[in-house]
Every structure is written in structure tokens, then in C-alpha cells.
Write a structure and sequence with these properties.
Layout lengths: L4 H29 L5 E8 L3 E8 L2 H9 L14 H11 L8 E9 L10 H8 L3 E8 L11
Parallel strand pairs: 1-3, 3-4
Antiparallel strand pairs: 1-2
InterPro entries: BABAM1 (IPR026126)
Subcellular location: Nucleus
Main location: nucleus
Length: 150
């Protein structure tokens, strides 16, 4: 049976999107299983700019519901990205009030190029927080001469 190339591409994109969703759900479930009940999670999507998709929550149900709601458009490939927008978005949304909680922002980076994190005050501030971690999930096609680190 012959499948048109566009159909095969759409199938591959759907599988990738569903794989990302399963991975994110497993990540949160694993943290909950090992007793991290005081962890809160946020989701940051990197389209052409950083988008604060989900505010911090300790509810695995809410995180899973938001993961299921990720649209094809949000998980598609974007050619360009304003890395400074990541720092600005995190700076705007990081209001870590409760020192008993451990906050994790999950950033989904779906590019074939190697990211360079900004070195501004926002990133320095994040490194100094002892109850915050920036988890970056990188989805890529593999290294090529055009995207390999220098």
C-alpha cells in the first residue's frame, strides 16, 4: 500500500508529540512516586518566544491535563527563538513564596540547534535559588555541521 509523503510526516509528528506528552507525564509521576509531594511544576514552551503555559502547581492531575492540552501548534518545529524571552518570562513568573516547596519549571526545547542560555541577571538569580530548578527537555534531530556546538 502506498502512503503519500505528507501522510507519513503527519504520522511521525503525531508520534513525536504523543511521545513528548507521555515522557512529561512519566517525569512528574516518577517524582511523585519517590516522595516529592512538595514539588510544584510549571511548564514553559519555547515557540519563537518563551510562553508560560502552566503556573506552578503540586497537582499531578492539573499538570497531566495541561500536558494533554498541548496543541500540535505548540509542539511543532520553530526555526527561530528569542532566548532572552526565556529569561524575561521566568523573571516575570518566578514568585517562589514557600521555602518548603521545591519548584521545577519544565522547558520544552524542540530545535535542532544547540541553545545558548542568556547570561543576564535573571539566570544568575535562578542559580542562587535553592528551591528552584529549570528542567530542560531537548528534542532534536541529531548533530549536523549546521547545528553542532562551536
Amino acid at each position: 500500500m502506498y502512503n503519500e509523503p505528507q501522510v507519513e510526516v503527519l504520522k511521525a509528528q503525531t508520534y513525536t508529540r504523543e511521545t513528548v506528552k507521555r515522557f512529561l507525564k512519566r517525569y512528574v509521576a516518577t517524582n511523585k512516586m519517590i516522595g516529592n509531594d512538595n514539588d510544584e511544576y510549571a511548564i514553559v514552551l519555547l515557540t519563537d518566544v518563551a510562553i508560560w503555559h502552566l503556573d506552578f502547581t503540586a497537582s499531578a492531575f492539573i499538570v497531566n491535563t495541561e500536558i494533554d492540552a498541548l496543541s500540535e501548534d505548540r509542539l511543532r518545529a520553530y526555526a527561530d527563538f528569542d532566548m532572552q524571552s526565556l529569561g524575561d518570562t521566568l523573571n516575570t513568573n518566578l514568585k517562589l513564596q514557600n521555602v518548603d516547596y521545591y519548584y521545577q519549571a519544565i522547558v520544552i526545547y524542540g530545535r535542532s540547534s544547540v541553545p545558548t542560555l542568556p547570561t543576564n541577571d535573571v539566570m544568575k538569580n535562578m542559580k542562587q535559588r535553592n528551591n528552584f530548578i529549570l528542567d530542560v527537555i531537548v528534542l532534536h534531530d541529531g548533530f549536523k555541521n549546521t547545528n553542532a556546538p562551536v
